[in-house]
Known about the structure:
With 293 residues, this protein is mainly α. Helices cover 71% and strands 2% of the residues. The chain contains 13 helices and 2 strands; from the N terminus they run H-H-H-H-H-H-H-H-H-E-E-H-H-H-H.
Amino acid sequence: MVLAAATLFGINGAVAKVALSSGLSSLRLTEARSAGACLGLVLLAFARDPRSLRVARRELPRLILFGCIGVAFVQLTYFLAIHRLAIAIALLIQYLGPLLVAIYARTFGHEHVRRRIWVALGLSLAGLTLMVQLWSGVSLDGLGVVYAFLGAVAYAVYLLLAEREVAARDTLSLMAWGFFFSTLFWSVVLPWWSFPGRAVSRTVSLQGSLSGVHVPVWALVLWVVVLGTIAPFTLIVGALRHVSATRAGVTAMLEPVVATVVAWVWLQESLAPAQLVGAAVVLAGIGLSQTAR
Length: 293
Protein backbone atom coordinates (compact mmCIF):
# COMPACT_ATOMS: atom_id res chain seq x y z
CA MET A 1 0.00 0.00 0.00
CA VAL A 2 2.84 2.41 0.85
CA LEU A 3 4.70 1.48 -2.35
CA ALA A 4 1.55 2.18 -4.38
CA ALA A 5 1.07 5.50 -2.58
CA ALA A 6 4.70 6.53 -3.15
CA THR A 7 4.35 5.65 -6.85
CA LEU A 8 1.21 7.78 -7.19
CA PHE A 9 2.91 10.66 -5.34
CA GLY A 10 5.91 10.36 -7.68
CA ILE A 11 3.73 10.50 -10.81
CA ASN A 12 1.72 13.34 -9.29
CA GLY A 13 4.83 15.54 -9.22
CA ALA A 14 5.03 15.58 -13.04
CA VAL A 15 1.27 16.13 -13.39
CA ALA A 16 1.40 19.04 -10.94
CA LYS A 17 4.38 20.56 -12.77
CA VAL A 18 2.41 20.61 -16.02
CA ALA A 19 -0.62 22.11 -14.25
CA LEU A 20 1.55 24.85 -12.73
CA SER A 21 2.77 25.81 -16.22
CA SER A 22 -0.71 27.27 -16.80
CA GLY A 23 -0.04 30.09 -14.36
CA LEU A 24 -1.81 28.46 -11.42
CA SER A 25 0.35 29.05 -8.32
CA SER A 26 1.66 26.22 -6.15
CA LEU A 27 -0.32 27.42 -3.15
CA ARG A 28 -3.57 27.70 -5.12
CA LEU A 29 -3.08 24.20 -6.51
CA THR A 30 -2.58 22.93 -2.95
CA GLU A 31 -5.73 24.75 -1.83
CA ALA A 32 -7.77 23.17 -4.64
CA ARG A 33 -6.15 19.82 -3.86
CA SER A 34 -7.22 19.99 -0.21
CA ALA A 35 -10.78 21.10 -0.97
CA GLY A 36 -11.28 18.48 -3.68
CA ALA A 37 -9.85 15.72 -1.52
CA CYS A 38 -12.06 16.80 1.39
CA LEU A 39 -15.20 16.62 -0.76
CA GLY A 40 -14.29 13.25 -2.27
CA LEU A 41 -13.31 11.66 1.05
CA VAL A 42 -16.45 12.92 2.84
CA LEU A 43 -18.66 11.47 0.07
CA LEU A 44 -16.81 8.13 0.17
CA ALA A 45 -16.97 7.93 3.97
CA PHE A 46 -20.67 8.86 3.96
CA ALA A 47 -21.48 6.25 1.31
CA ARG A 48 -19.58 3.58 3.21
CA ASP A 49 -20.92 4.37 6.69
CA PRO A 50 -22.43 7.78 7.62
CA ARG A 51 -21.85 7.06 11.31
CA SER A 52 -18.09 6.94 10.76
CA LEU A 53 -18.04 10.73 10.30
CA ARG A 54 -19.30 11.31 13.83
CA VAL A 55 -16.70 12.86 16.07
CA ALA A 56 -16.56 13.20 19.85
CA ARG A 57 -15.60 16.52 21.38
CA ARG A 58 -12.46 15.02 22.89
CA GLU A 59 -11.28 13.98 19.39
CA LEU A 60 -11.49 17.46 17.86
CA PRO A 61 -8.12 18.80 19.13
CA ARG A 62 -6.28 15.78 17.70
CA LEU A 63 -8.14 15.96 14.37
CA ILE A 64 -7.47 19.70 14.09
CA LEU A 65 -3.79 19.05 14.78
CA PHE A 66 -3.74 16.24 12.22
CA GLY A 67 -5.41 18.39 9.55
CA CYS A 68 -3.49 21.62 10.12
CA ILE A 69 -0.04 20.23 10.98
CA GLY A 70 -0.07 16.75 9.45
CA VAL A 71 -1.82 17.65 6.18
CA ALA A 72 -1.73 21.42 5.51
CA PHE A 73 1.52 22.43 7.21
CA VAL A 74 3.58 19.77 5.41
CA GLN A 75 2.56 21.30 2.08
CA LEU A 76 2.91 24.91 3.26
CA THR A 77 6.46 24.48 4.58
CA TYR A 78 7.48 22.61 1.43
CA PHE A 79 6.32 25.43 -0.85
CA LEU A 80 7.94 28.03 1.39
CA ALA A 81 11.19 26.04 1.22
CA ILE A 82 11.25 25.71 -2.58
CA HIS A 83 10.94 29.47 -2.92
CA ARG A 84 14.42 29.71 -1.36
CA LEU A 85 15.99 26.31 -2.14
CA ALA A 86 16.28 23.99 -5.10
CA ILE A 87 13.33 21.58 -5.10
CA ALA A 88 15.63 18.56 -4.79
CA ILE A 89 17.35 19.98 -1.70
CA ALA A 90 14.03 20.86 -0.05
CA LEU A 91 12.77 17.33 -0.74
CA LEU A 92 15.93 15.77 0.70
CA ILE A 93 15.63 17.77 3.94
CA GLN A 94 11.91 17.02 4.25
CA TYR A 95 12.64 13.31 3.98
CA LEU A 96 14.45 13.51 7.30
CA GLY A 97 10.91 12.97 8.63
CA PRO A 98 11.18 9.13 8.78
CA LEU A 99 14.44 9.49 10.72
CA LEU A 100 12.66 11.74 13.23
CA VAL A 101 9.89 9.13 13.53
CA ALA A 102 12.45 6.42 14.33
CA ILE A 103 14.15 8.67 16.92
CA TYR A 104 10.78 9.45 18.54
CA ALA A 105 9.81 5.77 18.60
CA ARG A 106 13.12 4.87 20.29
CA THR A 107 13.30 7.73 22.83
CA PHE A 108 9.75 8.75 23.71
CA GLY A 109 7.76 5.74 22.50
CA HIS A 110 10.15 3.31 24.21
CA GLU A 111 9.90 1.03 21.18
CA HIS A 112 12.66 -1.31 20.10
CA VAL A 113 13.86 -0.02 16.72
CA ARG A 114 15.94 -2.75 15.12
CA ARG A 115 19.45 -1.92 13.97
CA ARG A 116 18.60 -2.69 10.35
CA ILE A 117 15.97 0.11 10.41
CA TRP A 118 18.74 2.61 11.20
CA VAL A 119 20.87 1.12 8.42
CA ALA A 120 17.87 1.32 6.05
CA LEU A 121 17.35 4.98 6.95
CA GLY A 122 21.04 5.69 6.35
CA LEU A 123 20.97 3.96 2.96
CA SER A 124 17.80 5.76 1.89
CA LEU A 125 19.11 9.20 2.89
CA ALA A 126 22.45 8.48 1.20
CA GLY A 127 20.60 7.43 -1.95
CA LEU A 128 18.50 10.60 -1.90
CA THR A 129 21.70 12.63 -1.52
CA LEU A 130 23.11 10.97 -4.65
CA MET A 131 19.86 11.60 -6.53
CA VAL A 132 19.87 15.35 -5.79
CA GLN A 133 23.68 15.57 -6.29
CA LEU A 134 24.44 17.80 -3.30
CA TRP A 135 28.06 18.25 -4.39
CA SER A 136 27.20 20.06 -7.64
CA GLY A 137 27.46 23.69 -6.47
CA VAL A 138 24.48 23.88 -4.11
CA SER A 139 23.86 27.21 -2.38
CA LEU A 140 21.80 26.98 0.79
CA ASP A 141 19.53 29.71 2.11
CA GLY A 142 19.27 29.70 5.91
CA LEU A 143 15.55 30.48 6.09
CA GLY A 144 14.85 27.99 3.33
CA VAL A 145 16.62 25.27 5.30
CA VAL A 146 14.54 26.18 8.37
CA TYR A 147 11.30 25.88 6.35
CA ALA A 148 12.39 22.51 4.92
CA PHE A 149 13.32 21.15 8.35
CA LEU A 150 9.96 22.32 9.74
CA GLY A 151 8.44 20.36 6.86
CA ALA A 152 10.35 17.26 8.00
CA VAL A 153 9.00 17.73 11.54
CA ALA A 154 5.45 18.16 10.17
CA TYR A 155 5.82 15.02 8.04
CA ALA A 156 6.95 13.06 11.12
CA VAL A 157 3.98 14.44 13.08
CA TYR A 158 1.66 13.36 10.24
CA LEU A 159 2.94 9.77 10.33
CA LEU A 160 2.82 9.53 14.14
CA LEU A 161 -0.65 11.11 14.47
CA ALA A 162 -2.04 8.92 11.68
CA GLU A 163 -0.57 5.79 13.28
CA ARG A 164 -2.29 6.70 16.58
CA GLU A 165 -5.66 7.82 15.20
CA VAL A 166 -6.11 4.95 12.76
CA ALA A 167 -6.31 2.59 15.74
CA ALA A 168 -9.65 4.10 16.79
CA ARG A 169 -11.06 5.52 13.54
CA ASP A 170 -11.39 4.12 10.02
CA THR A 171 -9.07 5.43 7.33
CA LEU A 172 -11.65 7.25 5.17
CA SER A 173 -13.23 9.25 8.01
CA LEU A 174 -9.81 10.13 9.45
CA MET A 175 -8.60 11.48 6.11
CA ALA A 176 -11.95 13.25 5.51
CA TRP A 177 -11.59 15.16 8.79
CA GLY A 178 -7.90 15.78 8.16
CA PHE A 179 -8.55 17.38 4.78
CA PHE A 180 -11.58 19.26 6.16
CA PHE A 181 -9.40 21.09 8.67
CA SER A 182 -6.67 21.47 6.05
CA THR A 183 -9.19 23.15 3.73
CA LEU A 184 -10.30 25.50 6.53
CA PHE A 185 -6.64 26.39 7.07
CA TRP A 186 -6.08 27.20 3.39
CA SER A 187 -9.36 29.12 3.18
CA VAL A 188 -8.04 31.49 5.84
CA VAL A 189 -4.58 31.79 4.25
CA LEU A 190 -5.95 32.20 0.68
CA PRO A 191 -9.64 33.31 0.58
CA TRP A 192 -11.64 31.55 -2.12
CA TRP A 193 -13.08 34.74 -3.60
CA SER A 194 -9.65 35.54 -5.03
CA PHE A 195 -9.15 32.10 -6.64
CA PRO A 196 -7.93 32.48 -10.28
CA GLY A 197 -10.68 30.58 -12.08
CA ARG A 198 -9.40 31.51 -15.55
CA ALA A 199 -6.18 29.57 -15.00
CA VAL A 200 -8.16 26.34 -14.46
CA SER A 201 -10.16 26.78 -17.68
CA ARG A 202 -7.06 27.03 -19.89
CA THR A 203 -5.69 24.21 -22.06
CA VAL A 204 -2.01 23.28 -21.77
CA SER A 205 0.44 20.94 -23.47
CA LEU A 206 1.54 17.86 -21.52
CA GLN A 207 5.13 18.81 -22.47
CA GLY A 208 8.12 16.56 -23.04
CA SER A 209 7.42 13.31 -24.88
CA LEU A 210 3.66 14.13 -24.75
CA SER A 211 3.98 17.71 -26.02
CA GLY A 212 1.56 17.02 -28.87
CA VAL A 213 -1.26 16.28 -26.41
CA HIS A 214 -3.25 19.20 -24.95
CA VAL A 215 -5.63 18.87 -21.99
CA PRO A 216 -7.63 21.35 -19.88
CA VAL A 217 -6.02 22.39 -16.59
CA TRP A 218 -9.11 21.29 -14.64
CA ALA A 219 -8.45 17.70 -15.80
CA LEU A 220 -4.91 17.88 -14.41
CA VAL A 221 -6.25 19.32 -11.14
CA LEU A 222 -8.77 16.44 -11.00
CA TRP A 223 -5.88 13.96 -11.39
CA VAL A 224 -4.00 15.73 -8.57
CA VAL A 225 -7.09 15.50 -6.34
CA VAL A 226 -8.10 11.87 -7.02
CA LEU A 227 -4.90 9.97 -7.91
CA GLY A 228 -2.42 12.41 -6.41
CA THR A 229 -4.16 12.98 -3.07
CA ILE A 230 -7.20 10.88 -2.14
CA ALA A 231 -5.76 7.54 -3.26
CA PRO A 232 -2.16 7.85 -1.95
CA PHE A 233 -3.03 9.52 1.37
CA THR A 234 -5.70 6.88 2.05
CA LEU A 235 -3.28 4.08 1.12
CA ILE A 236 -0.56 5.36 3.47
CA VAL A 237 -2.92 5.85 6.42
CA GLY A 238 -4.55 2.48 5.76
CA ALA A 239 -1.10 0.85 5.65
CA LEU A 240 -0.41 2.09 9.18
CA ARG A 241 -2.83 -0.59 10.38
CA HIS A 242 -0.30 -3.17 9.18
CA VAL A 243 3.18 -1.59 9.46
CA SER A 244 4.77 0.91 11.83
CA ALA A 245 5.14 4.61 11.04
CA THR A 246 8.93 4.09 10.86
CA ARG A 247 8.72 1.38 8.19
CA ALA A 248 6.03 3.31 6.29
CA GLY A 249 8.23 6.41 6.29
CA VAL A 250 11.25 4.54 4.93
CA THR A 251 9.18 2.83 2.23
CA ALA A 252 7.65 6.17 1.19
CA MET A 253 11.17 7.27 0.19
CA LEU A 254 10.43 5.51 -3.10
CA GLU A 255 8.58 8.71 -4.12
CA PRO A 256 11.61 10.74 -5.31
CA VAL A 257 12.89 7.67 -7.19
CA VAL A 258 9.59 7.38 -9.09
CA ALA A 259 9.42 11.17 -9.58
CA THR A 260 12.91 11.20 -11.11
CA VAL A 261 12.18 8.33 -13.50
CA VAL A 262 8.81 9.81 -14.55
CA ALA A 263 10.45 13.20 -15.18
CA TRP A 264 13.09 11.43 -17.31
CA VAL A 265 10.60 9.42 -19.39
CA TRP A 266 7.78 11.99 -19.64
CA LEU A 267 9.30 15.45 -19.23
CA GLN A 268 12.64 14.38 -20.78
CA GLU A 269 14.65 15.72 -17.86
CA SER A 270 18.25 14.48 -17.73
CA LEU A 271 19.15 11.53 -15.51
CA ALA A 272 22.83 11.33 -14.48
CA PRO A 273 24.56 8.03 -13.63
CA ALA A 274 24.88 9.15 -9.98
CA GLN A 275 21.09 9.54 -9.84
CA LEU A 276 20.61 5.97 -11.07
CA VAL A 277 23.01 4.74 -8.39
CA GLY A 278 21.13 6.82 -5.80
CA ALA A 279 17.82 5.29 -6.87
CA ALA A 280 19.29 1.80 -6.44
CA VAL A 281 20.59 2.68 -2.95
CA VAL A 282 17.16 4.04 -1.91
CA LEU A 283 15.50 0.83 -3.12
CA ALA A 284 18.06 -1.21 -1.16
CA GLY A 285 17.22 0.77 1.99
CA ILE A 286 13.49 0.20 1.44
CA GLY A 287 14.02 -3.52 0.90
CA LEU A 288 16.12 -3.78 4.06
CA SER A 289 13.46 -2.00 6.13
CA GLN A 290 10.86 -4.58 5.04
CA THR A 291 12.91 -7.39 6.64
CA ALA A 292 12.57 -5.79 10.11
CA ARG A 293 9.39 -7.52 11.21
